[in-house]
Write a structure and sequence with these properties.
The structure holds two protein chains of two kinds. Chain A is α/β, with parallel strands linked by helices. Helix content of chain A is 45%, strand content 21%. By secondary structure, chain B is α+β, with helices and mostly antiparallel strands. Helix content of chain B is 26%, strand content 31%. Classes of the chains: A alpha/beta, B alpha+beta.
């Protein structure tokens, strides 16, 4: 027993080295033309003048500089995917997008077919030309911020496009990138939504046959305009019960259109290659490098065995100044304990249908297996017996369909089981 | 009384300038009497403290009296005025209402602990020693009232000329009447626009049989006719009876408080003989002996004097270490005397209302313990027993004399402790008659008293339950009679008496189970009478009753912490109430939760909590993970503290919301 586990540990060790050399990259473009009332991201309204243009130019330089610096701190040799998010990255000059892709390719190995995604807002001007340019530069996946097909609701949410703009962009993107490479973002529980209106809206969208849908429940976050409008009673959103009905109804409709849920909020056409590999990497614990104001990273630094979590400076101006001075603008850098890494792996991967993969688990924790911890855990008994949690064929730890619907109610117990096991056996934290 | 919302408000207001370090009993400053001689008032005495020589006051020139009144009828204002008129304190002293020393007393305009003051009053050229013995205003403290009255020969019955006779006035009157005290009726606030002395006079005639000509009409606020009160005290109230200065020392201990530097300060009424510093005395009830370290009179702060003699009232300090040693009602006497006759029959106070007290957070247990210890030092009538509840953790079960006593104590506790305290729904003691020799042997008696519903014996061995009853007096404008009757019937009240007190007001008396008025009764009464009805009660023994144990079940499993006892007629209603409250507070689970209230295995109420269908966070990408982790960790910590019953995870908050008043 002992021999075999040592042997396993050795195997895992070399696997871990490979794992540490691979990462994904996220670029954050923090500017928007218009601020959506529900958004709590790190975003700013860009000044529309010469100053703003100069600023954009400097953004590009700083992003490239920060990429170079952070890459140098890690053992990363290969980049598996790139994602441009924001803010509104489609507002950035396309040349910037091109140069950033080139920059990544310069500092690391990449596959020819590496997934490169950009979030596109239907309001950005000259989108057809831009989409074509993106395609030319190597972008091969587009996420369209459609959100709704109801113009009134789009307006209430502060979106600066019509439903028609959204559909137009979806069509153009599909023509340029192909059906598997286009995703649409949808929002439910919008002010004024009813179960019926949501059903109609969703069917209408599904009739356009998207191969990938990201479905988000509108969540009022403190500090947003929407939050204040709800608090003051200016607006109302559907209650919890109706919201549950809307989500369950969406699950049913999406299934009817053969869109499979592969993560809580993400659906891809069955048998297609529409799933987002970049996002999948987050959920399964792959290293990721976040570049730009407020971007997050999880990386194994040089000569360290434990992973660190980094957050870059939020405010674009300060971020730029810091990058200029230090080469990077990391505001917070924390070593993660083994327990923290495992916890993060669990709370993200259990949101996917694949669940937590044993090989990933063993990379992070060769001392004990998932089955050791969760296999016979008393607090989880109920979840197994009532069909919320299960074990996959390959030994992966998974939430069932029913379990995915209530995963937030399960995860705290899973975390407690893990930390209790970890403490009881006196493993190094 | 009051509404609990007001209490919270008052708490907030006062906690700002509340200084913990000042012992509440002692934070009055005695102002030099000279500072008040500015001619605002004519003083009837100009004796400064140092000039008082008690040996100059023979028994015939002593009057011991109390003022009894309904809340807000102006008792404290009158007391202040009497103190001012006799030059005992200065006018416009910094502290309004000198005798209400407790913070909560001043906030609520009620008196809890009796305070005493000695006044010197010059009447027709002769100095009289008047001892004002302040009494608690509520019969909850009837024991305190009666021990205060035991030191008096007369009382001033104060009635608001605007509000008229109230329930508490009646209760207080009968208490004084039953003790054969001389009663001086006084109508206060006659300067108010709405004062109606004529009809209040009629009320006083109808209820108490006072002749209108004997009723003094005053305004304590403006000072109008207050001197007539002093005159009447001298003229109408007799000097202390059965006192003899020639006999050896004997005295009644009728109040005490704890001073952190000097120990117990006991207030006594001397019956026989003289007492001096250095004398040795014994206490009849406790059998302990002490040496007098200091003694004197209260004006209202302590003024040390060489001696106190028969008929007089004063304080003694004699190394009593805790207030439990200073048994109120006990007789003190010269050490070595045998066969001493007790001044008043001694009776241990008996708690009638019980409630659990828990800290909001278990880590605060030591702080709450020390606050409780501090308060019980001063109020020995509160009984304290450790209690631990699986749901609420470690706490205490406190016994109080009555509902007001409980309210006041809890408010003081929160002030002392500086944080919110969880106080459970109050319960009353039940007498239980057992059958079966074996069971009787097991419990030690055929009849046992159980203070906590959790400790009820198995119903199969119970022959009969008895519950405590009270006689409640309600005085109300007659237009509210109907709704009040319905309320009383709903609370299992049985009407005993009803009579008109004047052309528009009635006095109704009901026999109630104490349990039925323990929660919300006063609030309900006030709200359905637009605040006009007044209520008071006195204990009225135990009566056989049909009590059942109500169980609360979650998905078929009994939740012991929520079990309680109720009258059989209330099982359904109360069960429904708890089920609804649980339905509101139990977080949704993955499955449906059935909440049932049962009596003897039969379901009397039922509610459901629907299963959770969706519990997911929309987004979880690279930038969301840290925040998400933080949130889940907090939830995970919370889960560790939850109690699991039938797989249902119940946060402490659920129990608090159901068990709390």
């Amino acid at each position: 027993m002992k021999v075999s586990s040592t042997y396993l540990a050795q195997c895992d060790h070399s696997l871990l080295e490979i794992f540490k050399s691979e990462a994904t990259v996220y670029f954050h473009w923090p500017f928007c033309k218009n601020i959506c009332t529900f958004c709590n991201f790190n975003k700013y309204k860009k000044p529309e003048n010469k100053l703003g243009q100069d600023f954009e130019k400097k953004m590009e330089t700083s992003l490239i500089r920060e990429t170079q610096t952070i890459f140098g701190l890690t053992r990363v040799k290969k980049i598996k995917s790139i994602y441009f998010g924001g803010g509104t990255p489609s507002l950035a000059p396309s040349t910037t997008i091109s140069r950033l892709i080139q920059c990544v390719k310069q500092f690391a190995n990449t596959d020819e077919k590496m997934e490169i995604t950009i979030e596109c807002n239907p309001s950005s001007l000259n989108m057809t030309r831009k989409l074509e340019e993106y395609f030319k530069f190597g972008v091969n996946r587009v996420s369209v911020g459609l959100q709704s097909l109801d113009d009134k609701k789009l307006k209430i949410l502060g979106r600066d496009h019509s439903s028609n703009d959204g559909l137009m962009m979806f069509k153009q993107a599909t023509e340029i990138f192909g059906t598997d490479a286009v995703s649409v973002d949808l929002l439910f529980r919008k002010p004024g939504d009813t179960i019926q209106s949501w059903e109609n809206e969703l069917i209408q969208i599904l009739e356009h046959k998207p191969h990938h849908v990201s479905l988000y429940e509108l969540t009022p976050e403190k500090g947003t305009r929407l939050f204040r409008e709800l608090k003051s009673g200016e607006l109302t959103i559907p209650n919890e019960n109706d919201t549950a009905s809307m989500y369950l109804l969406a699950l049913k409709l999406l299934k009817e259109y053969s869109l499979e849920r592969y993560e809580i909020s993400n659906f891809a056409k069955a048998g297609s290659r529409a799933q987002s590999l970049h996002n999948m990497s987050y959920w399964h614990g792959t290293q990721y490098i976040g570049i730009g104001p407020g971007a997050h990273s999880r990386i194994f630094p040089l000569k360290a065995n434990l992973r660190e979590s980094r957050i870059q400076t939020l405010d674009p101006q300060s971020w730029q100044d810091l990058v200029e001075r230090n080469g990077h603008a990391t505001r917070l850098c924390k070593q993660q304990s083994r327990l923290e890494i495992l916890s993060e792996l669990l709370i993200t991967s259990l949101r996917t249908i694949k669940g937590t993969q044993p090989n990933r688990w063993n990379l992070f924790q060769p001392q004990y297996s998932m089955n050791d911890v969760f296999g016979a855990a008393e607090p989880l008994k109920f979840f197994y017996l009532d069909g919320y949690l299960k074990w996959g064929m390959n030994g992966s730890f998974q939430a069932t369909d029913k379990g995915l619907n209530v995963i937030d109610g399960i995860l705290p117990t899973v975390l407690n089981v893990l930390s209790e096991y970890h403490t009881r056996h006196k493993f190094t934290p | 009384m009051w509404k609990s919302r007001l209490i919270r408000h008052a708490l907030k207001v006062c906690s700002r300038n509340y200084t913990k370090d000042v012992p509440w009993k002692k934070h009055l400053l005695l102002l030099p009497t000279t500072s008040c001689l500015h001619g605002h008032l004519q003083h009837y005495s100009s004796k400064s403290n140092s000039e008082i020589d008690l040996t100059l006051f023979p028994i015939e020139r002593i009057r011991n009296f109390s003022i009894i009144a309904h809340i807000d009828h102006g008792k404290s204002t009158l007391a202040d005025r009497l103190l001012e008129l006799t030059g005992t304190i200065g006018k416009d002293s910094h502290e309004a209402q000198m005798l209400d020393r407790l913070q909560v007393e001043r906030e609520r305009g009620i008196t809890v602990k009796a305070q005493t003051a000695t006044l010197v009053y010059n009447y027709q050229g002769i100095d009289y020693l008047l001892n004002l013995i302040d009494t608690p205003g509520h019969v909850d403290f009837s024991f305190e009232v009666s021990r205060s009255l035991a030191a008096c020969q007369g009382v001033i019955l104060l009635v608001d000329a605007n509000q008229g006779v109230q329930a508490q006035t009646v209760a207080n009157f009968f208490l004084a009447f039953s003790k054969n005290l001389t009663i001086v009726p006084v109508m206060n606030k006659i300067d108010l626009k709405n004062a109606d002395p004529e009809s209040v006079g009629i009320q006083m005639k109808n209820i108490f049989e006072f002749e209108p000509k004997d009723i003094l009409r005053i305004s304590a606020k403006t000072g109008l006719n207050v001197d007539s009160v002093l005159q009447s005290i001298v003229e109408r109230i007799p000097p202390p009876k059965n006192c003899d200065i020639a006999k050896p020392f004997r005295a009644l201990l009728f109040d005490s408080w704890y001073d952190r530097y000097r120990g117990v300060i006991a207030v006594i009424a001397v019956i026989d003989g003289v007492i001096r510093s250095g004398d040795s005395i014994s206490a009849k009830h406790t059998g302990k002996s002490y040496e007098i370290k200091d003694l004197g009179i209260l004006r209202p702060n302590e003024v040390s004097l060489p001696c106190i003699q028969a008929g007089q009232v004063g304080y003694v300090v004699c190394n009593m270490r805790s207030s439990t040693e200073a048994k109120v009602g006990d007789t003190l006497f010269k050490k070595g005397l045998v066969n001493v006759e007790e001044v008043a029959s001694f009776r241990q106070s008996k708690p009638m209302v019980f409630a659990g007290v828990y800290p909001m957070d278990q880590s605060e247990t030591p702080a709450l313990r020390s606050a409780l210890e501090k308060l019980t030092l001063n109020d020995s009538s509160v009984t304290v027993a450790k209690e631990s509840s699986a749901a609420l953790g470690q706490g205490w079960r406190l016994g109080f004399l009555g509902l007001l006593h409980m309210e006041v104590f809890n408010q003081r506790l929160e002030q002392e402790y500086g944080a919110e305290v969880i106080v459970t729904v109050p319960s009353v003691p039940y007498k239980i008659q057992l059958h079966g020799e074996k069971n009787i042997k097991k419990y030690g008696a055929r009849e046992i008293v159980v203070n906590n519903p959790a400790f009820f014996p198995d119903p199969s061995i119970i022959e009969q339950y008895f519950e405590p009853m009270v006689l409640g007096t309600i005085i109300t404008p007659d237009i509210y009679m109907g709704p009040i009757m319905s309320l009383a019937l709903d609370r299992r009240g049985v009407q005993v008496d009803s009579k008109n007190v004047d052309s528009s007001r009635v006095m109704m008396q009901f026999k109630f189970p104490l349990n039925e008025i323990a929660v919300d009764f006063y609030d309900a009464l006030k709200s359905l009478s637009s605040g006009y009805a007044s209520f008071d009660y006195e204990e009225d023994g135990f009566e056989a009753s049909d009590i059942v144990k109500l169980h609360i079940m979650l998905n078929g499993e009994v939740v012991e912490e929520l079990s309680t006892v109720v009258h059989v007629s209330k099982a359904r209603k109360y069960g429904k109430e708890i089920c609804l409250r649980l339905q509101e507070t139990i977080p949704r689970q993955m499955f449906q939760v059935a909440i049932q209230a049962t009596v003897g295995g039969k379901v009397v109420a039922r509610e459901n909590v629907a299963a959770l269908r969706k519990d997911v966070t929309a987004k979880c990408y690279g930038g969301d993970i840290s925040r998400r982790m933080k949130l889940l960790k907090r939830q995970a910590e919370g889960k560790k503290r939850m109690k699991s019953i039938a797989n249902i995870e119940l946060p402490r908050d659920t129990f608090i919301k159901v068990l709390k008043r």
